[in-house]
Amino acid sequence: MTTAAVSQRTPETAWRPPSPQLMQIRDLVYQVAGIFQPDNKLRQFEDRCQKRMQALGVSSLREYYQCLTVRPSRQTELVSLLNEITVGETFFFRNQPQLDALRNVVLTRIVDARKKMSLRHIRIWSAGCSTGEEPYTLSIMLMEELAGRLQGWTFEIVATDLNERSVAHAKAGLYGNYSTRNLTPETTKKYFSPAGENLQVNAQVKTHVSITRVNFLDDARMVFLKGFDIVMCCNVLIYFDVQSKRRVIQHFYNSLLGHGYLFLGHSESLYGVNDDFRLVHLPSATAYVKAETKVIL
Predict the structure, then answer these.
(1) 216: confidence class by pLDDT, cuts 50, 70, 90
(2) At what angle do helices 74-85 and 164-172 cross, to 10 degrees?
(3) Do residues 248 and 237 touch, judged by C-beta distance below 8 A?
(4) CA–CA separation, 190 vs 186, rounded Å?
(5) pLDDT at res. 33
(6) Are strands 256-264 and 277-282 parallel, antiparallel or unpaired?
(7) Strand order in 277-282's β-sheet?
(8) pLDDT of residue 77
């Protein structure tokens, strides 16, 4: 099916029952990545499958399902499909109230906790980093603190995403007007370099950030992500059902130190998902910490 044909679907076509093969592909994506496609998103999901089918020269969903399950290139094609359905939207300094709470309240508490550990090092996990604006924002913020309360400290930001194209974009660190629209002239001059019509993140910002592809349901990978002071996972859990959320949140719980903080998107909540965290209210933002009975002093 051509792109034009997809865009010209009639209402009758849009309401047809989904094919069994499409449901098989949906179940496969859920099994592998925990990403659930609800019924009201199936049309969009099928469009993403059709895009991959066009790239492969495949004419039916039945054949495409075989590409995802039995053909030699199945793993590569599954990653390509996940790239299509996990396209994120983000920009620098996206949620300023949350960032202010992190910088003005949470960072102070983490510094105090780390001093008691005699370890002047801060670790942050940007989980679901998309194209990299969030981890680079965090790097810029902490670099601003190095001359003050973080003088003599080091920090690292581990950035992960499921989408390999987003990971490649993040590693390149090259951004256009949409991503950089919230930057002040001072920040732009200090931490970016002109690159044609775009802006290139400076090497000093990049040096604190490591970026890699990680599937949240890959237990073997997730178990090694440990010892974080902060986990940022904003606007990612919306892709998961309750069961997958519980599995991912348990990984975050295991990854955080006893004094650590978990930040979610403003519309996301752990209500009915996990009881090991408790909600804390910060100025103009909320976060989660380990429940009092679980806190390691």
Answers:
(1) very high
(2) 70
(3) yes
(4) 6
(5) 85
(6) unpaired
(7) 209-213, 154-161, 121-127, 228-233, 256-264, 285-290, 277-282
(8) 92
Which strands, in side-by-side order, build the sheet including 174-175? 174-175, 198-201, 192-195
> Alpha-carbon dihedral of residues 267, 270, 273, 275, nearest 10 degrees?
-170
| Beta strands at 121-127 and 228-233: parallel, antiparallel or unpaired | parallel
How many residues are recorded in the chain? 297
Q: How many angstroms separate the CA atoms of 247 and 274, rounded?
A: 10
Give me the domains of the chain, ranges plus CATH numbers: 3-85 (1.10.155), 96-290 (3.40.50.150)
**Rg (Cα) of the chain, in Å, rounded?**
21
Distance from C-alpha of 70 to C-alpha of 64, rounded to nearest angstrom: 10
- Give the H or E element holding residue 277: strand 277-282
The interaxial angle of helices 61-69 and 20-33, nearest 10 deg, is 30
Hey, what long-range contacts does 11-14 have (CB within 8 A, 24 or more apart)? 14/43
Q: What is the pLDDT of residue 100?
A: 95
- Over the stretch 76-122, which tens digit does the pLDDT of each residue have? 998 889 888 887 779 999 999 999 999 999 999 999 999 999 899 99
Q: What confidence tens digit (pLDDT) does each residue in 35-51 have?
A: 888 888 889 899 999 99
Transcribe 49-93 into DSSP letters.
HHHHHHHHT---HHHHHHHHHTSTTHHHHHHHHHHHH------TT
Question: What pTM was estimated for this model as a whole?
Answer: 0.84
User: Any idea what the Cα angle at residue 295 is, between residues 293 and 297, rounded to 5°?
Assistant: 125
Tokens of 193: 């370099």
